[in-house]
Design goal:
- Pfam families: Peptidase_M10, PG_binding_1.
- Keywords: Calcium, Hydrolase, Metal-binding, Metalloprotease, Protease, Signal, Zinc, Zymogen.
- One of its GO terms (cellular component) is extracellular space.
- Its cofactor is Zn(2+); Ca(2+).
- It is a single chain.
- The chain is α/β, with parallel strands linked by helices and 255 residues long.
- The protein has a domain of 142 residues: Collagenase (Catalytic Domain) (3-Layer(aba) Sandwich).
- It has seven helices and six strands.
- It has a four-stranded mixed sheet, covered by helices on one side.
- Strand 1, helix 5 and strand 2 form a beta-alpha-beta unit.
- Helix 2 crosses helix 3 and helix 5 packs across helix 6.
Length: 255
Amino acid sequence: MHYLLLCAVIFLPETPAFPVQPRPESLSSIDLEKTKQYLDKFFPVFTKTQNLSIEERIKEMQKFFHLNVTGKLDKETEKLLTLPRCGMPDAAEYQTFSGNQKWAKTPLSIYSEIIPECCLRSTLLTKAQEKNNSALSETCSRLNYQIQDLNLKHGDGSAFDGKSGTLAHAFPPGEGLGGDAHFDEDEKWSDIDQDINLFLVAAHEFGHSLGLDHSNVTGALMYPIYSYQNPETFKLPADDRRGIQKLYGKFMMKF
């Protein structure tokens, strides 16, 4: 019996005295390219940040979205890269576009180019406009949007990427493309909580059309990541209210 026990001990595989520390996470070439593309699109490098490493840029993104700041592509951060979102770059808290771009003239006219295959889309877009109008004075009874439903490359330098990913984008007030809102034709748009709710996305994009940039406040209309909430009970969050008031003044607001 003692002999058998001794043999069992002798032939046990070698094990270290202390547990092996896991290797630090590193990005594969595929992950690195995917992450870099996301950062370049939504957290572009400016003069003050052009020398940041990929880890430092990941940290900036993690700070914006209130994630654990590790500089690594952990599961939480990796999931973020796959979530449906707006195609415009990100900022912090309520922001307005550089120079506080806004429409100087009211009332504003409305012009729409809406894909005719589904009447639901027209209804939802009208509803979204009415929701935004309720936040402005009666003198600003209509908002100036050119709404287009487009796929992939469509002439504005910001191609869509197919289903999920980038849902839509819009341009701040100005000439040419100013105020235009573009929606990805490949998305499965809906008026219910399944798939992508057109009202919520349209309301977000119209915020850009009015001059609002992205916010890092979770739950704000201008938060870049899509999440569903009931359009019937939707109210403009305080963060977005402050942003629109900065551009158009408190005296213009009705709630």
